[in-house]
Amino acid sequence: MVVAETRLVAEAVREFRLRPAEPHRVAEFVPGAHVQCEVTLPGGDKALRAYSLLNAPHDRDGYVIAVARAEDGAGGSAFLHGVAPGTLLAVTEPKNDFPLSDDAGEHLLLAGGIGITPLLAMARTLTQRGAKFHLTYAGRRPAAMAYHDEVQALPNATVICDGGDPRNGVDLAALLAGPRRDLHFYVCGPRKLIEAALTVARAQGWAESNLHFELFSADATRSGDVGFTVEIQSTGQTLQIPHDRTILDVLIEAGLDPIYDCKRGECGICVTEIADGVPDHRDMTLSQREKDEGKSLCTCVSRAKSSRLVLKL
After folding, report:
1. Exposed, middle or buried by CB within 10 Å (0-12, 13-18, 19+), for 107?
2. Full residue range of the structural domain in which residue 146 is found
3. DSSP label of 225
4. Phi and psi (nearest 5°) for 168?
5. Are 37 and 49 spatial neighbours (Cβ–Cβ below 8 Å)?
6. What span, in angstroms and rounded, lies between the C-alpha atoms of 136 and 30?
7. CATH classification of the domain holding 52
8. Is 121 inside any structural domain?
């Protein structure tokens, strides 16, 4: 696709309008969908980065994304912030792991930081439909919040600026009080916000089927991680998992053809039973009870606290 236009929509957030390199309409999508753009990292390696689509589903002349520049990131966002109009980018077709529920009579949306992108797309569509919803958008200060003015102008939206003090942030207990069967909750933003919101929602009795969330990055590797061994129970095959690689990646390289999808610990497709060993859970899909039992893990993000894991594969 061609970068047709770019503009700053916050201090460190740039919007990109992408158009097909050759005239044709882009693939259909619905709110919550994302595309992956190929970026060039500082060392010259290519990588894919996922960005939510902001434009309305009926607008199929191209895609609109917004990219927050991460100063401490791997370099993908910095690359895109340096891209000029006219540049060609490799872009995947849309995929949606975060759709609006067809069963909802009302939608409760919560965005933190750049997590506003999929939720703003939802809010625009719900407004167009005349559907019932409320959007809460949290950030530190207006100048750093993409689309701040547009959200603030919505009659069914609340903008909260905490100034960097969490005590002035979203009152999750109040926001999530009174779960109903026809009310669905959607949250996107920093991992801590998502975890806190889901914890409060579950404590207040929300059904899992009514909770929807999306992470923009996985929590697969951390500073201080060490390598460990994975044994495949059915064959006895032993694999070394380096400190900077995931179990899933090593399984794929070994030709084992594991089942997976999101690679962010959200969907639960890659959950695998454990025959022996102690997992280090980093997913957002297993319940706390399942994590405490330690009988399964998500291979895409979770690791091991023990030096060896035996997987029932």
Report:
1. buried
2. 106-214
3. -
4. -100, 10
5. yes
6. 21
7. 2.40.30.10
8. yes
Cβ atoms of 108 and 175 closer than 8 Å: yes
| C-alpha span between 3 and 21 (Å, rounded) | 9
Sign of the alpha-carbon dihedral angle for 154, 105, 56, 31 = positive
Please classify residue 231 by burial: count the beta carbons closer than 10 Å to its beta carbon, then call 0-12 exposed, 13-18 middle and 19+ buried.
Answer: middle
Residue in the block written with tokens 């594969």: 313
Using CA atoms in the order 145, 149, 150, 155, what is the torsion angle rounded to 10 degrees? 120
**Residue 122 shares a structural domain with residue 186:** yes
pTM to 2 decimal places? 0.80
Query: 169 to each of 65, 90, 130, 157, how far by Cα in Å?
Result: 26, 38, 29, 15
Per-residue pLDDT of the chain (313 residues; tens, 9 = 90+): 999 999 999 999 999 999 999 988 888 899 999 999 999 999 898 888 899 999 888 888 899 999 999 887 778 999 999 999 999 999 999 999 899 999 999 999 999 999 999 999 999 999 999 999 999 999 999 999 999 999 999 999 999 999 888 889 999 999 999 899 999 999 999 888 998 999 999 999 999 999 999 876 655 567 788 999 999 999 999 999 998 889 999 999 999 888 888 788 878 889 999 999 999 998 878 888 899 999 999 999 999 999 999 999 9
* Torsion of the alpha carbons at 269, 274, 279 and 284, rounded to the nearest 10: 20
Q: Can you say whether the dihedral through the CA atoms of 195, 197, 201, 206 is positive or negative?
A: negative
Per the CB < 8 A criterion, the answer to whether 63 and 18 are in contact is yes
- Provide the β-strand partners of residue 157: 135
> Do 132 and 68 belong to one domain?
no
